[in-house]
Specification:
Layout (H helix, E strand, L loop, with lengths): L1 E4 L6 H9 L5 H7 L14 E4 L7 H10 L10 H5 L2 E4 L2 E5 L5 E3 L1
Antiparallel strand pairs: 1-2, 3-4, 4-5
Helix pairs in contact: 1-3
């Protein structure tokens, strides 16, 4: 289990996308942080328990790392920045605003 320090304006969905590359592990993050729920207002610098090693969408996670991209739904460019092409062994993939792969 590792610790994640939230950034200004992030919500629980941003944290899950940032750490897993998709929202598939949202329930796991809520279980690991029992004081959180979907409506919890996170504050900048809040420490959360995150177990994302070898979990989630590695293509998206690696893309975020390479681009130093931080998810933040309060950022007006969030959806534009997230809709980007990733090159993979299967060809180009479009990532939608929820981190889901869309074949093109």
């Amino acid at each position: 289990m590792s610790k994640y320090r939230t950034l200004e304006g992030q919500n629980i969905f941003d944290v899950v996308l940032q750490n897993f590359g998709s929202l598939d592990n949202l329930a796991e993050v809520l279980v690991d942080n029992p004081l959180l729920n979907l409506d919890t207002n996170l504050f900048s610098g809040q420490i959360l328990e995150i177990n994302s090693i070898n979990k989630g969408n590695l293509d998206i996670k690696n893309h975020y790392i390479r681009q130093d991209f931080k998810t933040n739904n309060q950022d007006e460019n969030f959806l534009i920045n997230l809709q980007t092409y990733l090159k993979s062994s299967n060809g180009n993939l479009l990532i939608d605003s929820f981190g889901n792969k869309l074949k093109i």
